[in-house]
Every structure is written in C-alpha cells, then in structure tokens.
Design a protein that fits this description.
heterotrimer; A: alpha/beta; 2 domains; 6-stranded mixed β-sheet; 3-stranded antiparallel β-sheet; 9 strands; 22% strand; C: MetI-like fold; MetI-like fold
Chain lengths: 264, 296, 524
C-alpha cells in the first residue's frame, strides 16, 4: 500500500476538519479527489504528505508510519513523497533553477545543498523538467517575474524533478487555461505511470477528474461521500456532492509591507 | 512658521537673520543674566580625574573665601578646551591653566596670568612604558602605540611632541598609533593596562602617583624625562575687577609653607610657594606650539 | 519550443560577486587593521576580561550614586527639551518644504519663482542639519559657546530638527491627497490645508514618530557628555578614561534600565494615541515632562550663561575651511578610513545579526531564545560610544576598534529587526521543503532566507547610512576615522581645519545615503 488511512481524523485549532477517514491507495494507482470548497481536500493531502499529524487513527505512507520514525528516517521517507501546491511557495528572489533544484534537497547532503545554492548543479535535468511543463525558457528567471500559472507549473516541475514514489497534488492547475490544464494533468498521470508512482490529485474541475482518473473520491464536510471507479460516479452523486456550494472567491495572501523609517 | 513670519532684511542674508533671531530669542534670558558679584567661579583644566581636582581644590577654595571675603565655587569641567572657552566667554572668573591652554586663551581673548608655582618655571614631563614590552630607550618605541594626555595639555602633549620633533620623531609616522588619554592619570592607567605600549605625562602627577603607591611598578616603568619648560599658572578673565585681581594674587603669594595650615594647601597643589608670573614667561610655549604645528 | 541555455546567463556576475565580496572584505580588513583572530588572542582577552570583570560589583559609592542620579535627571531633561526644540524647528520646516502642501501639485497653480528658491534653500538647511551628527553639533556648540546642558539641548534640537523636518514632510506626502486638493482648489492657505486636511489624517503617525524619536534622543543625550555637554556621558567618559570598571558597571545597569524604561513609555504612548483619553493623557504627560525638564535645566543655564557673541566669532572663523593639499590628503585618509570602518562594521553586523536572529525568532533551540533576546537588548542598549571605548581596550587605538564597536552594536540592532522579519515571513516555503525531506539548514537556505533577505539587506543599508555617522564620531574615544581628527582640530582651536573635516563628513554621509538609496532601489 502506498497510502493507507485508518480512521485518521484531523482537528486544527479545536475545529474538526476531517472526520475519521479510512482509505487505501495501492502502488501505481491514480486517484482524483473532488468536492466543494472547504470539504477538507487540502487537509487530507497534508495528512497524506505528513504535513499534519492525525489526532486520531493511523496514517501509513509507503508502508511506514511517519509519526513513529526518528528524524533521519522521517527525512528519508519524506524525500520519497512529493507535493504540488495550489500556490507554490516560491521565494520571490529565488531563480527558477534553484526553486526546482530544491526538489531533491531530501536526497542531498547539507553540504551539497549549500553548494547548489552558490552555484547551480544538475542544470540539464532541471531544464528537462521545466521543458515538460513548457517553460524551458524560464530556467534563469526570477520567481517573482512569473505569472500565477507559470508559478503553478514551476511547482509541478519541481515534483517532476524530485521523482517521488507518492505524488500528491492540491489543485495543481487552478490557474491554467483549460487546454493547458488538461495537458498538465495528463503530464502528471503519464509521469506517475511511467515511474510506477502513486498519484493523488485534488481537482476543482470534475471534467478533468473524470477524463484522467480511473478512481474518484468525493469529499464533503470532512467525510468521504463516495470512493468509486470512474464508471460508477453518477450525475446525481455529483449533484449531491456539490449541493449548496457558494462560488469560491480567490484570496491571495498579502506579503509584508516595506519599511519607512530607519531605526536609531 | 517662525521663518515665514520674519520679513527678510534685504541687506543681510535672510538665513543668518533667521538663525540669529531664533538663537537670540531662545537664549535671551540666559544670556542677559549677570554674575552675582559676591561669587568667584573657579575652574581647572581636567589634567586629572574630576574627583581628584575637587579634592585638591577644597582647602584652597576655603582659604580664598576667607581672604577675599566672597563665596568661591569650583566648576568641574571635563575638557581642556572647554575651560579656555568658558574663561573667554566670562562663564568662569579664574582658572588653573597649563602653559598651552594659557597661550590659547590669550590668543582668543583678554586674560591675565596672576601667579604660578615656583616649580612651574622648570617643569618636566616623564615618558613611561609598559614593563612587559622590554623597552628601555625612546628610539625603541618605533612602531609601538603611544598615548599623550589631552591634546590641549602642555606637559602631556605639546612639550613632549616638541621635544620628540627635535629628536626627529614625528609621532604620527614614528608610532603605530597615537591616542589621547585625556588626563595624566588616565595615561598611566592606559599604559598599565596595556591599552597602549607607552605614554607621556606631567612629572608632578607621576611623582604624586608614585608617592601615593598608585603606580604598579611591575607594570609601568619610567623611560625618560624631557628638558624643563614653563608650565601651569592661575589666570583670571581680563574683565575681572582689577582690585579683585590684585587681592587674589596677594592671597596666593601670602601662602607660606611654615604655616601648617598653608602647608596643607601648598602640598595639595604640589607647590613650595607661589610666585608672580607674566604673559611673557609663556613666549617659549607659544614658539614651541607653532613649531609643533599645534598653533596657527 | 523555447528553451534556455544550460549556461547561467548571470554566471559572470555571480562569479564576480563570489570572488569580489570576500576580497573587498579582506581589503577593508587589511586597511582598517581589523583582525578577528586578535580577539581570540590571550592577552587581548585577558585585558578585556580584567576590565569587564571589574564591572562587578557595580560601584555603590555614595557620592558617585548622587552624581549618577543628578546626571540621569539631566539626561532625561536634555532629551525631552531637545526633542521639543526639534519639533519646533522641524514642523515649520516640514510645512514649508513638504510637497504635499504645494498648490501646484494640488490644484495646478503655477508656483512663484522666489518661493521655489526659498524651498530649495530650506531643504538644503534640512540636509545640513541632519547630516552633521548630533554629537558633532554638541562639540561645536561647546567649543563655540561654553559648557553645560544648553549646547546639548541645542545640538539635539538642530540634528533632530533636520531629521523630523524631512520625515514629517514625507509622512504628509504619503497621505491620500484628495482632501488637501479639495481645500487647495477652494483657495485655502498652506497652513489651512495642513490643519484641516492633512493633520487629521496624519496626526497619529506624526506623533508616533516623534515619540519614537524621543526614545532615540534619550540614547543620544546619554553620550553628549563625552564632548563636555552634560548628562550621563560626562560620568561615563571619566569612568572609562580612568578605567574604573565598577563605575562603568553601575552606568551600564543604569543605561539598560533607562533604555527599557523609555522603550516601555514609548510603546505605551504610541498605543495611547489611538484613543481620545489616551491622547489627552499623552498631551498632559508631555507638558508635564517638558515643564519639569526646563525647571531642572534652568538653574544650570543661569549659572553658565550662553555666549552668543562667542558663537558669532566662532562661526566667522569657521567659515574659512582649510584647503591645503597636505591637509586634504590627511582628510581623504580619514574619509576612506571612516567609510571602510562603517562598511565593514555593517557587513559583519549583517552576519552577526542573522546568526542571532535565528534563535531569537525560534529557529533554534527553544531554551536559547530568551538568552539571545537578552543579549540582543544588551548589544543595542549599550551606547555605541561605550562599545567604541571597550573595543579600543580590546584591540588598541585605531580603526580596528571602530569596526568591532560598530559590528557589535549593529548586530544587536539588526538582530532584533531580522528576527521581526523572520517572524513575519510566511512559513509555507520552508514547510513545503521540510515535507519533501529537506534538512533544517537546507530549508532555511532555500525557503526562509530568500524571502527574508531583501528586507534584511534593506535594513542593513539603512543602518549603514546611520553607521557612517557613528563611525565619524567613534574617533572621539580613539577609534580612528574623521572623528579623531575633528576632536583634535577643535581641541586645538584649529577651526578652519574643523570646518573642512565637517564638510568631509557631510559629503561622506550624503554620498553613502545616495549610494544606499540607489542600491535599495536596484534590489527592490
């Protein structure tokens, strides 16, 4: 089993985000996670990426319980798990080559990591990953010069470069136009298939989910509404899943403001 | 809005007028207040720690109060040049000046030297060195760090610099670094602590510190002595009442070492007796200052 | 498909940077004679340790404590009345020069030529006022017009007046202009536009900045005594010269308490502005403080009347700067020394600040946080001149001591600011890297630092502008640079030399300010 949740639940700040969930993904399986905003998709992915510790139940990642491991073993486990974020956290002044190169930090020694910071290493492989998301020309660009869609694709290129065994993606194409979104999801699926990696992707677009994934999980109010093969997902199930959803508004966090006065 | 409401006088620079007016306005009250006549304000160049100066002055002050029939107040000052400024600005009436500060004060205003110690007509300075440095001759100080006292000091700076130059030693290039400790006893502390390798100070202060056992002989060693020169005097501002000037001079001259009370005062001043002095005595200092480049 | 070359286009400049940075630092170290290894030297450490060990127990001598109390009161009074003077000077100048009150920008009226010239002149005055460090103003006034606390008050008033004038004008310019434009269009006067449109918008910010400046004024007035201008500095100067550790210990404790107290008062006051009652309380407190200050200082001023005529004579002598080639070479050396001391000190402080900021903002062992924060407060609460004196003790006279003093003091200042930046940096980039298995140091270097760095660099550049002025005055305690030459020139009444030196200081600080502004714009 690549991913296994046994009655795993999650609360944040006293709020129950995820009810006890049970769920298994076999190695090489490709699964889409759908559901209305606030259903807990991102939290579930964080739970699956060892970003949150469950407050009940059990999580097994690639056959190991991350929360029983010592620090070095946890690092090794995490380096085999890759995450794509809806808003990839790329430092503004970092160059794309460095941001993508950071994907393999889990496999590198600290010294090698610092060396790579001073002087770019493994540039050919990084450019290769970038070319697969059609951004080959942005290799030396600074991240703050990229559009939202380009940032999303750089985030994907980082995981392609990391080559994880468990690939988790949270709304990875929300800022892309429909055609590019379709190509990019296809790319993720193809990459995972080629390497025999397990893929769990949360998607806002049901069409994309149905088009690319053999298995769909519907999440609502922190509970699994359904977990079915593509053929058994009926329109009425989908209507029930999204019933009463308000159109979500995008909220970009504002970053720190400038300084006005020199301190004395 | 201060600036805007003052119409500029076309003949003068408006900026100067503004500055003048605002400064004058602010200080009017302070500036117009006159001295209380029955008070004599005395200060001294801070060639030693301020507490030491006050201790030295206390009995002399009481003596002067009695002799002059007026109150005498000691104004402690932290910096040599400030004493010169204060005397020229009539902020104090009388000051204990060094030869060099006296020359500075007489260049910048009218001042009258009254008396000096007998010892001041043949004063010297002592070169000292850190005992660990193993130095025994002045010439060995090349490339070492060196401390003068205050930059305005006669015995702590001017005359040693002048005599060094006569031996073709230019301090800024000969020594690794040159510092100004600010006071004679501070110079000893600096050399003892190793903050500098060597220094120079007033011979009288050196003797006093040695006698009082305040010099750790295992840390500081005497290196040499300068030729003699004129130094310290008691000077009053030129605008001080002439009769009062004479009374002060007489009071100093009356001090007699055979009188035990007087002896205590003289000992604290490290004087055998006081003698009259005149400005001409300090011509030599002026020449030395010009040659050393300290006076323009 | 478009594809970038495998060769880094920025390779040349990165390589140049990687090589040039250490070379420049080494060159600066060589010129200033700053060798960090000397600090590890047994003798140095021994000398310093003996002196510092003397700090304990702090002196509790009765006479000394009496002086201490009196001078503390004087210091507070100097700072408060000096700042009041600065506001009286700075606010009118800001109103006269702020572009936010210009009728031509607000409603398109053509400005009068004479008016424009006056404004240019006043802006020049502001630059000169704040370009000369407050301590140098004090030194000049003490030389020109005699002793006491009045020169200190005037010095603070002049230097801070120039600073407040500029900042007030900028605060007004940053306000939304609609209300002011509407008033201007209806023909209101400059003062009316300020009073009815801009003051209501900007009042809290103006007051808050002034209170903050008061905090700075306390620190500044605490060292004014180094040049004979009254206050605690007088005692500190004497104790340091005489190497009296116990007294320095007492003074240090007092400084720390004073800084903590003023920071507390300043924080409370700045919070109080936002409520009506708080504002009234603040106003009443200010009036009370000012009255007490003047009452305290008045007898001192009466005893040592200010010599206005002397000031005049002094100014006339002063207006003929020396321009001999020999002397200019000497000044040039001083300028270079001061520049390198400030740059190297700031660069080292950048490293020190970064290292201290990590534990101070919880990026290190948890138990380390409180001690590091305490250390930061100690580093920045101790006046720069005191660090200078200690550094001279450790490294001997000369610019190396200046570098050390600046590095240590500025590490404290930057460490606190850097830690604030870290606390405000979103943690997701770091978290994302940690969740993909990156080590602690790698997370830091790839996720956190790239985000914090621009702000850190901006802070360091700001601080450098400040440090160039400090480097210029560290010479007063024997740490090289222009300050030592200036002190000598003023002690020997070589006023034309002093004038040249002050011109050099002004040029240097103006140059560094412009360079730093240019650099910040390029980086931002």
């Amino acid at each position: 089993m690549s991913l296994r949740l046994d009655a795993a639940s999650l609360s944040l700040n006293g709020h129950r985000i995820l009810q006890p969930l049970t769920l298994q993904l076999a190695q090489g399986e490709q699964v889409a996670l759908i559901g209305p905003s606030g259903a807990g998709k991102s939290s579930l992915l964080l739970l699956a990426g060892s970003g949150h510790r469950p407050d009940g139940g059990n999580v097994q990642l690639l056959g190991q319980d991350p929360w029983q491991l010592r620090a070095p073993a946890l690092r090794r486990l995490r380096s085999r798990i890759g995450s794509v974020y809806q808003h990839p956290p790329l430092p503004a002044l970092q160059r794309v080559v460095t941001a993508i190169g950071a994907g393999q930090l889990g496999q590198l020694s600290t010294l090698a990591a610092l060396r790579r910071l001073l002087w770019p290493q493994d540039v050919a492989a990084i450019r290769d990953a970038l070319q697969r998301v059609q951004l080959g020309d942005k290799l030396w660009q600074r991240c703050d010069r990229l559009s939202g869609g380009q940032r999303q694709r750089v985030g994907i290129a980082r995981v392609l470069y990391q080559q994880p065994e468990l690939l988790l993606a949270d709304e990875p194409v929300s800022a892309l136009d429909p055609r590019l979104a379709d190509d990019t999801v296809a790319l993720l699926c193809a990459d995972a298939r080629a390497r025999g990696a397990t893929l769990l992707v949360s998607l806002h677009s049901v069409e994309l989910a149905l088009a690319h994934f053999p298995r769909l999980i519907g999440l609502r109010d922190g509970q699994i509404a359904f977990d079915l093969p593509r053929a058994e997902v009926t329109p009425s199930l989908l209507t029930a899943l999204y019933a009463g959803e308000q159109p979500a508004t995008a909220d970009e966090p504002a970053l720190g403001s400038g300084i006005r006065i020199a301190p004395c | 809005m201060v600036a805007a409401c003052c119409p500029p006088n076309p003949k003068d620079n408006p900026l100067m007028n503004i500055a003048k007016l605002s400064v004058a306005g602010l200080l009017l009250a302070a500036a117009t207040l006159s001295h209380a006549e029955a008070l004599l304000k005395v200060s001294a160049i801070p060639d030693e720690a301020p507490t030491e100066l006050q201790r030295k002055f206390a009995p002399l002050g009481q003596y002067l109060e009695k002799e002059l029939g007026m109150k005498v107040q000691f104004v402690p000052v932290s910096d040599y040049a400030a004493v010169v400024t204060a005397l020229n600005a009539d902020q104090i009436d009388m000051a204990w000046l060094g030869g060099f500060t006296f020359v500075q004060a007489s260049q910048r205003g009218k001042v009258v030297p009254l008396v000096q110690r007998e010892e001041d007509s043949r004063f010297t300075s002592k070169y000292i060195v850190n005992a660990d440095s193993g130095i025994s001759k002045l010439q060995q100080l090349k490339g070492k760090s060196f401390a003068f006292g205050s930059a305005s000091s006669t015995s702590g700076h001017l005359m040693p610099r002048y005599f060094l130059q006569k031996q073709h030693i230019k301090p800024e290039t000969f020594f690794k670094s040159v510092g100004y400790s600010g006071a004679h006893d501070a110079t000893v502390a600096w050399v003892a602590s190793g903050k500098v390798d060597a220094g120079v100070l007033n011979a009288s202060v050196w003797d006093k510190l040695v006698e009082a056992g305040k010099v750790d002989q295992s840390k500081v060693k005497l290196l040499g002595t300068t030729p003699p020169y004129f130094d310290y005097n008691w000077t009053v501002r030129g605008s001080l009442d002439k009769k009062l000037q004479q009374k002060i001079q007489q009071a100093f001259l009356k001090l007699n070492a055979t009188n035990p009370e007087h002896k205590a005062i003289l000992d604290l001043q490290r004087a055998s007796k006081f003698i009259p002095t005149k400005a001409a005595n300090y011509k030599g200092i002026e020449t030395a200052a010009k040659e050393a480049g300290l006076l323009q | 498909m478009l594809s970038a070359s495998l060769h880094d286009p920025a390779r040349a400049s990165r390589l140049a940077g990687l090589i040039a940075t250490p070379l420049l630092l080494l060159a600066a170290m060589a010129y200033t004679g700053f060798n960090p290894l000397l600090l590890a030297d047994g003798d140095t450490a021994g000398t310093l340790w003996r002196f510092v060990a003397d700090f304990f127990p702090p002196s509790t001598d009765g006479a000394f404590l009496h002086d201490l109390l009196r001078e503390t009161a004087t210091t507070l009074a100097i700072a408060s009345s000096g700042l009041a003077l600065a506001v009286l000077l700075g606010l009118p100048l800001a109103l006269l020069t702020s572009r936010a009150l210009e009728r031509d920008t607000l409603c398109g009226e053509a400005p009068a030529r004479g008016w424009q010239w006056l404004q240019r002149l006043l802006r020049g005055v502001l630059i000169v006022l704040r370009g000369v460090p407050d301590l140098v103003w004090a030194l000049l006034l003490v030389r020109a017009a005699g002793l006491g606390s009045l020169p200190a008050v005037l010095a603070l008033g002049l230097a801070y007046g120039g600073m407040l004038g500029k900042v007030y004008a900028e605060i007004l310019e940053s306000q939304p202009p609609q209300a002011a434009a509407a008033l201007a269009a209806s023909g209101a006067s400059r003062l009316a536009i300020f009073g009815y449109a801009l003051l209501p918008q900007a009042a809290t910010e103006l007051i808050s900045y002034s209170v903050y400046r008061w905090e700075c004024a306390i620190r500044a007035s605490a060292v004014m005594g180094f040049v004979g201008a009254g206050g605690l500095g007088l005692l500190l100067d004497t104790s340091l010269r005489m190497l009296n550790g116990g007294e320095v210990g007492s003074l240090l404790l007092l400084f720390a308490a004073l800084v903590a107290l003023t920071e507390g008062v300043s924080r409370v006051s700045r919070a109080a502005i936002h409520s009506r009652a708080g504002g009234a309380g603040l106003a009443a407190g200010t009036l009370l403080l000012l009255t007490l200050s003047l009452l305290w200082l008045w007898p001192q001023w009466r005893e040592a009347p200010f010599d206005v005529a002397g000031l005049w004579r002094f100014a006339q002598e002063f207006l003929r700067p020396t321009l001999h080639a020999d002397f200019l070479v000497q000044v040039g050396n001083g300028v270079l020394e001061t520049l390198l001391v400030s740059a190297l000190g700031s660069a080292l402080a950048f490293i020190g600040g970064a290292l201290l900021a990590l534990p101070a903002s919880n990026r290190g062992p948890r138990w380390l946080r409180a001690p590091v924060q305490l250390l930061l407060n100690l580093l920045r609460g101790t006046p720069d001149l005191l660090w200078g004196a200690l550094a001279v003790l450790a490294l001997g006279l000369g610019p190396a001591a200046g570098v050390l003093a600046l590095a240590v003091h500025t590490s404290g200042v930057l460490g606190r600011l850097f830690a604030q930046t870290l606390e405000n940096t979103p943690p997701d980039a770091e978290a994302a890297l940690r969740h993909s298995g990156a080590g602690r140091l790698a997370c830091l270097c790839y996720g956190l630092l790239p985000q914090a760095l621009p702000q850190w660099v901006a802070y360091t550049l700001y601080r450098w502008e400040n440090n160039i002025r400090i480097a210029a005055i560290l010479g007063l305690v024997g740490a090289g640079g222009l300050g030592q030459q200036l002190y000598l020139a003023l002690s020997l009444f070589q006023l034309s030399n002093a004038a040249t030196l002050i011109l050099a200081m002004l040029l240097l600080s103006w140059g560094v300010e412009s360079f730093s502004r240019w650099l910040r714009q390029r980086l931002g």
